[in-house]
């Protein structure tokens, strides 16, 4: 059979894909092909001059050529003619791999082309005499099966070494590589734009340059982070909006840092220059308590495109550069869910990066790592790197990065990268279209590396000549991208010699009037999928909310939560938990934390609120308490082995999503923040594996969650669940760093709660959605209390109660005999209560502050009044004295005191570490804290600060 196949030469022409698949099988596993084919492939790999990473396409092409010559023999060494043919195909392959390194990408032309031997025909033994010889072109899209070596070489250099340098051969998906080859090679990477299209490109460059120069002269010395030198970014963004709109995209969410932001606001989103000038002149929105600088602000608009209206949203961004990127992807994901746009056809994200930041900031790695995972994938993000080749203040390339390109990080997800010379706006427009088409075709990220320069310093007060003298001599001599392109169009006869100056004058006149000369903004357009935030705006903080649920409903929901399919085999420990929960729902057992939390989610989804829970181990729960996802012990989890009871509560319920995230805090928390600021009608929960780990996302907490409303007016109902409690697990598994959140509390910006019972977490989570208020909620959740015999609630407490910001004394004490009131939060309450029972102490009342901020001032004062003879009020905390809630809350504790009452604090000694690592020392400290809080007044005198 093999001999018969080898004898049919037509098999290796039209049916070349069969051979390609055979060769791929050989590359993966040589034993997967027959001995004859394996021997032939082995010998072909050993041909002289073959690169180590030779691709399969040249091999396939060589089969076709040999078939024509009638010389195919499976075990024979290729004859001389075939060897030369294979070397031509290797040359083609080399340009696909390495041509980008020889491309003309730098507008400043600072460096000569590097020597790359593999791109020289001499490397393969070719001489001048071979240039006129015809060879088979293999898979190279030349337009015919054969061409001379000279024609092949010229076409390769035009395709891969001009203004566009493509990197894609590292991708493992053959169809994606073939798609890129077809798009680039068929047109030699050379666009064919009409006169109208070319004129528009010049128009966009003129708009970009004129705005920058206008601001530079009108607001001398003010920071704006100019786009000069990188004006082609506006060309790229214009193409993104128009091309995406043409193909059905209806929303684009944009994220970018400072460089060029003002230009994007005016020339892409249509923000009027008058609005921008007002910001330069110090005018501000009175409704914001803090506000932000002009180059951090976001904006949204609806613009017209050839394919219909497109809604543009530019995300607010702090100075932490790339941190906005996962925020954008979270917002995109939320918008796609509204529309049921699982393929990302209607909504997409566009991220503009800086060259130093994209390579230097680790949040990008975290974001890319989740880009193709469940619960985070958005169908691909378009990345545009404004590569000014200088970064921030780097003066030596050796200090810039370790990789060849700043975009090499994108190779981790096999995203193609299109390097392009910013001085060639037509090439920029072309690769932008190709990038968008690739994203639409394959639903994955794609990168445009816009290589340009920075005309001014990092900001307008910076002097770059100090550290970059030679580069900035080149910059000073550069006429500007607009002028370079204008002269090109004049020489082609596309425009007249006077047209460029006329365009500049028109734009300047428009700027003088405070308007945009060409505004595609649709002022009266009403989006079908817009979310109404009006019910949540300008709302005063309140704790009042009816979170009760009828007892019958709770029992019914509990039954649904514990109804597991018959064919499902649970782990014995999980089976016991489900059985216990069934008894809890019937009122036979008290409710534990896991059941209280789960019932909160169940009641919300049947009331019309979606729920999204994410975190590194949130499906099961780090401490084996949640079990929102059940796993069949006889099937793998990624098969049919998962069952999520909360998704099967009711036929008309809202969605419940629980996702075990990648091992990331910063990017995932930023994603959830972006999601929550876009979707007010869904409970969005992020759970840290241990509360301590949230410090890896401190930038998100500081710059977005706690300050986003004051700076930008961005409302957010995000919930952070942070396991917290001192159980002797060492410094990284004890404290959620409560003090950090408390230090950030002001202007009723967030809520910080330490619930101590299942009923409390039930009502707290429900309150978060049922109130017409959207504030971030920080919850110090328990660890040991998850299964503590006293940390339970009755079903009636869920049905008839509500969240209590402060819980008073729960045991029967003679209020007149109480001499001391101990205040505390969280787990330590149970230690104090147990010690008090053991001592049979009746002169000490214990109050639990369940909401540390906003502080329940009225409830606190009312509770203290119950104990007229109490002269000592003690704040008791597990954390060291310099940590926890003491320093940030003592003014609240003091404000509620009566005359004659003294305030004391009991805590671990001030420490540099959150907790000790030695179990014996932990136990000794814990005993001291409890004994001091309940002990004599003499001990207390030594405990205060």
UniProtKB/TrEMBL annotation:
<dbReference type="Pfam" id="PF16078">
    <property type="entry name" value="2-oxogl_dehyd_N"/>
</dbReference>
<dbReference type="InterPro" id="IPR001017">
    <property type="entry name" value="DH_E1"/>
</dbReference>
<dbReference type="GO" id="GO:0006099">
    <property type="term" value="P:tricarboxylic acid cycle"/>
</dbReference>
<dbReference type="GO" id="GO:0004591">
    <property type="term" value="F:oxoglutarate dehydrogenase (succinyl-transferring) activity"/>
</dbReference>
<dbReference type="GO" id="GO:0005829">
    <property type="term" value="C:cytosol"/>
</dbReference>
<dbReference type="GO" id="GO:0006096">
    <property type="term" value="P:glycolytic process"/>
</dbReference>
<keyword id="KW-0324">Glycolysis</keyword>
<dbReference type="GO" id="GO:0030976">
    <property type="term" value="F:thiamine pyrophosphate binding"/>
</dbReference>
<dbReference type="InterPro" id="IPR005475">
    <property type="entry name" value="Transketolase-like_Pyr-bd"/>
</dbReference>
<dbReference type="Pfam" id="PF16870">
    <property type="entry name" value="OxoGdeHyase_C"/>
</dbReference>
<comment type="function">
    <text>E1 component of the 2-oxoglutarate dehydrogenase (OGDH) complex which catalyzes the decarboxylation of 2-oxoglutarate, the first step in the conversion of 2-oxoglutarate to succinyl-CoA and CO(2).</text>
</comment>
<dbReference type="Pfam" id="PF00676">
    <property type="entry name" value="E1_dh"/>
</dbReference>
<keyword id="KW-0786">Thiamine pyrophosphate</keyword>
<protein>
    <recommendedName>
        <fullName>2-oxoglutarate dehydrogenase E1 component</fullName>
        <ecNumber>1.2.4.2</ecNumber>
    </recommendedName>
</protein>
<comment type="similarity">
    <text>Belongs to the alpha-ketoglutarate dehydrogenase family.</text>
</comment>
<comment type="subunit">
    <text>Homodimer. Part of the 2-oxoglutarate dehydrogenase (OGDH) complex composed of E1 (2-oxoglutarate dehydrogenase), E2 (dihydrolipoamide succinyltransferase) and E3 (dihydrolipoamide dehydrogenase); the complex contains multiple copies of the three enzymatic components (E1, E2 and E3).</text>
</comment>
<dbReference type="InterPro" id="IPR032106">
    <property type="entry name" value="2-oxogl_dehyd_N"/>
</dbReference>
<keyword id="KW-0560">Oxidoreductase</keyword>
<dbReference type="GO" id="GO:0045252">
    <property type="term" value="C:oxoglutarate dehydrogenase complex"/>
</dbReference>
<dbReference type="Pfam" id="PF02779">
    <property type="entry name" value="Transket_pyr"/>
</dbReference>
<dbReference type="InterPro" id="IPR029061">
    <property type="entry name" value="THDP-binding"/>
</dbReference>
<dbReference type="InterPro" id="IPR042179">
    <property type="entry name" value="KGD_C_sf"/>
</dbReference>
<feature type="domain" description="Transketolase-like pyrimidine-binding">
    <location>
        <begin position="591"/>
        <end position="788"/>
    </location>
</feature>
<dbReference type="InterPro" id="IPR031717">
    <property type="entry name" value="ODO-1/KGD_C"/>
</dbReference>
<dbReference type="InterPro" id="IPR011603">
    <property type="entry name" value="2oxoglutarate_DH_E1"/>
</dbReference>
């Amino acid at each position: 059979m093999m001999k018969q196949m080898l004898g049919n030469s037509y098999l290796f022409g039209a049916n070349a894909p069969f051979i390609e698949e055979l060769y791929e099988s050989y590359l993966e596993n040589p034993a997967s092909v027959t001995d004859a084919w394996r021997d032939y492939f082995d010998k072909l790999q050993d041909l002289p001059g073959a690169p180590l990473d030779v691709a399969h396409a040249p091999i396939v092409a060589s089969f076709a050529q040999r078939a024509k010559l009638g010389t195919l023999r499976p075990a024979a060494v290729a004859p001389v003619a075939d060897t030369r043919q294979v070397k031509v195909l290797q040359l083609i392959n080399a340009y696909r791999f390495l041509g980008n390194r020889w491309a003309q990408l730098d507008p400043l032309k600072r460096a000569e082309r590097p020597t790359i031997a593999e791109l020289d025909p001499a490397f393969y033994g070719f001489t001048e005499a071979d240039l006129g010889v015809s060879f088979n072109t293999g898979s190279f899209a030349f337009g015919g099966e054969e061409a001379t070596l000279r024609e092949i070489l010229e076409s390769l250099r035009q395709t891969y070494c001009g203004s566009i340098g493509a990197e894609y051969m590292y991708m493992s998906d053959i169809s994606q590589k073939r798609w890129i080859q077809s798009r680039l090679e068929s047109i030699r990477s050379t666009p064919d734009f009409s006169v109208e299209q070319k004129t528009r490109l010049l128009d966009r460059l003129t708009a970009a340059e004129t705005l920058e120069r206008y601001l530079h002269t009108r607001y001398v010395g003010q920071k704006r982070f100019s786009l000069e030198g990188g004006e082609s970014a506006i060309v790229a963004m214009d193409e993104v909006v128009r091309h995406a709109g043409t193909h059905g995209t209806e929303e684009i969410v944009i994220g970018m840092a400072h460089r060029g932001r003002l230009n994007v606001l005016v020339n892409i989103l249509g923000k009027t220059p008058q609005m921008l000038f007002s910001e330069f002149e110090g005018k501000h929105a009175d409704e914001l308590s803090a506000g932000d600088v002009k180059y951090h602000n976001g904006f949204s608009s609806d613009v017209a495109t050839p394919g219909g209206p497109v809604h543009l949203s530019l995300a607010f961004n702090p100075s932490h550069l790339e941190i906005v990127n996962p925020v954008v992807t979270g917002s995109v994901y939320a918008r796609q869910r509204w529309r049921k746009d699982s393929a990302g056809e209607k909504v997409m994200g566009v991220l503009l990066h800086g060259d130093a930041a994209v390579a230097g900031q680790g949040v990008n790695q975290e974001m890319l790592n989740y880009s193709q995972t469940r619960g985070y994938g958005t169908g691909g993000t378009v990345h545009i790197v404004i590569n000014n080749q200088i970064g921030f203040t780097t003066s030596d390339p050796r200090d810039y990065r370790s990789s060849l390109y700043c975009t090499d990080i994108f190779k981790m997800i096999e995203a193609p990268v299109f390097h392009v010379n910013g001085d060639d706006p037509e090439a920029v427009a072309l690769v932008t279209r190709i990038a968008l088409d690739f994203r639409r075709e394959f639903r994955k990220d794609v990168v445009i590396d816009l290589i340009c320069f920075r005309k001014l310093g990092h900001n307008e007060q910076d002097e770059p000549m100090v550290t970059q003298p030679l580069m900035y001599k080149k910059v000073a001599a550069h006429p500007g991208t607009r002028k370079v392109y204008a002269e090109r169009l004049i020489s082609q006869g596309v425009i007249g010699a006077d047209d460029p100056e006329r365009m500049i004058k028109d734009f300047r006149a428009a700027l003088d009037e405070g308007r945009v000369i060409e505004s595609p903004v649709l002022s009266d357009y009403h989006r079908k999928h817009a979310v109404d935030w009006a019910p949540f705006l300008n709302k005063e903080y309140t704790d009042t909310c009816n979170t009760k649920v009828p007892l019958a409903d709770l029992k019914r929901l509990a039954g649904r939560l514990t109804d597991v399919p018959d064919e499902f085999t649970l782990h014995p420990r999980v089976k016991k938990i489900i059985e216990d929960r069934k008894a809890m729902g019937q009122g036979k057992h008290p409710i534990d934390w896991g059941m209280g939390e789960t019932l909160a989610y169940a009641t919300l989804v049947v009331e019309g609120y979606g729920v999204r829970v994410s975190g590194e181990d949130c499906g099961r729960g780090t401490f084996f308490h949640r079990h929102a996802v059940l796993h069949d012990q006889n099937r793998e989890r990624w098969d049919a082995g998962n069952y999520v009871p909360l998704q099967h509560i009711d036929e008309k319920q809202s969605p419940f999503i629980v996702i075990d995230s990648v091992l990331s805090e910063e990017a995932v928390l930023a994603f959830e923040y972006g999601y929550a600021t876009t979707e007010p009608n869904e409970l969005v929960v992020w759970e840290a594996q241990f509360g301590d780990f949230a410090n890896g996302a401190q930038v998100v907490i500081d710059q977005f969650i706690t300050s986003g409303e004051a700076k930008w007016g961005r409302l957010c109902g995000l919930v952070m669940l942070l396991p917290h409690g001192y159980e002797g697990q060492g410094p990284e598994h004890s404290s959620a760093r409560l003090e950090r959140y408390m230090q950030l509390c002001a202007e009723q910006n967030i809520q910080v709660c330490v619930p101590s019972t299942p009923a409390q977490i039930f009502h707290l989570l429900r309150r978060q959605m049922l109130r017409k208020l959207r504030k971030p909620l920080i919850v110090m959740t328990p660890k040991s209390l998850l299964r503590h015999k006293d940390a339970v609630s009755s079903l009636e407490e869920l049905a008839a109660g509500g969240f209590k910001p402060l819980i008073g004394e729960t045991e029967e004490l003679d209020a007149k005999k109480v001499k001391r009131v101990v205040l505390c939060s969280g787990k330590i309450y149970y230690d104090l209560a147990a010690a008090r029972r053991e001592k049979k102490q009746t002169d000490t009342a214990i109050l639990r502050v369940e909401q540390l901020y906003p502080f329940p001032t009225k409830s606190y004062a009312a509770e203290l009044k119950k104990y007229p003879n109490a002269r000592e009020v003690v704040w008791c905390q597990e954390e060291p004295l310099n940590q926890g809630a003491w320093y940030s809350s003592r003014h609240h504790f003091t404000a509620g005191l009566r005359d004659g009452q003294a305030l004391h604090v009991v805590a671990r000694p001030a420490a540099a570490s959150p907790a000790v690592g030695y179990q014996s020392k932990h136990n000794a400290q814990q005993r001291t804290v409890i004994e001091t809080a309940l002990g004599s007044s003499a001990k207390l005198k030594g405990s205060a600060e």
